[in-house]
Amino acid sequence: MRVCVITAPTGDCPLNRYDPHAREQTSRTRDAVVKSLKELSYEVSVIEAGPSMLLDIESTKPEVLVNLATGYRSKRDQANVAAMLELTDIPFTGPTAHGHIVGLHKHLAKMVMNTVGVPTPPFRVAFGEGDLNDGLTQGLKFPVIVKPAAEGSSVGITTDSVVADHSGALRVASEVLRDFGPPVLVEEFISGREFTVALLGYPRLKALPVEEIIFKEGTMYTYGVKARDNVTVRCPADIPGDLAASLQAMAVRAASAVGCRDAARVDIRLTGDGVPYVLEVNTLPGMMPDYSEFPRIAAEVGISYTEIVKTLVDGAIKRAAGDD
């Protein structure tokens, strides 16, 4: 079977300029996935996302597409890549454009989570300078965190993102609008332990063990912390079994509602009172070996990198066969 791996660009482009770590993540993930596909005896090709992608796919004639493209110009182009793949009528891994749009635009994901009863921190959204007024923090408890609503990999999040008052929120929101454009998310900052739940499988996502993220600096994933992988992890997390099961069920419910397929990762914070809140749903979780949480968590339950890749491809094949 011919399998084509779709990746983000590895050359000079806006995505790699504002997120220098993206190039390394793309290259190392691509190489690992290609290696696994060859171990599975697939005939493998690689195409980078871009204006000629559809023509390149047509000339390659793959039977399955493995979508690893985290963007083209920016992270928010994840959905645009998936939309182009939908035009090929070739089965591909991961969510449709709809799933990526909802998941990557954090305010939309939070609206969806609210409708299915998944707790997420209260929030407000600024779509332009006209929203930088008294309503920006109306009804929210301080401190709040201000960040781009449609970026990934903690892009746009710094130690200054958490503010203690309305004037601070206005200042940071204005900076985010200037540097990243709208929309800007302002949400209550949940101070507490952080967990992540990896999900794998099709037609139903299945939760892997809960992992706890323990920060060596600060109390959250800033871009700098994520780029340096400056955290300690504990998997399975040292929490009661009933809490772990609750977090896993919450993650499955959130990711399924957003529209995730094959693989996803859900970030959750636990308050000091033991109340969990879903922070966001990652529709295209990182798969870089020796760095990303997903393969690290899978390894804890004996799932190899090649088995992850096989599960992704099998999901696309099942959808093509109408096995939902």
What does the secondary structure layout of this molecule look like, with pairings?
Layout (H helix, E strand, L loop, with lengths): L1 E6 L6 H5 L2 H19 L3 E6 L4 H8 L3 E4 L10 H11 L8 H8 L1 H10 L7 E4 L17 E5 L13 E2 L2 H15 L3 E5 L3 E10 L4 E10 L7 H6 L2 E4 L6 H18 L3 E10 L4 E7 L10 H8 L4 H16 L4
Parallel strand pairs: 1-2, 1-3
Antiparallel strand pairs: 4-7, 5-6, 5-7, 8-9, 8-11, 9-10, 11-12
Helix pairs in contact: 2-11, 3-4, 4-5, 5-6
Describe this protein's structure.
The chain has about 325 residues and is an alpha+beta fold. It folds into three domains: about 1-95, 3-Layer(aba) Sandwich (Rossmann fold); about 120-190, Dna Ligase, domain 1 (2-Layer Sandwich); about 190-320, D-amino Acid Aminotransferase, Chain A, domain 1 (2-Layer Sandwich). It contains eleven helices and twelve strands. Strands 10-9-8-11-12 form a five-stranded antiparallel β-sheet. It has a four-stranded antiparallel β-sheet with strand order 4-7-5-6, covered by helices on one side. A three-stranded parallel β-sheet has the order 2-1-3, with helices on both faces. A hairpin with a 4-residue loop joins strand 11 and strand 12. The mean pLDDT is about 90.
Give a quick set of tags describing it.
3 domains; Dna Ligase, domain 1; globular; 4-stranded antiparallel sheet; Rossmann fold; 324 residues; single chain; 5-stranded antiparallel sheet; alpha+beta; 11 helices; D-amino Acid Aminotransferase, Chain A, domain 1
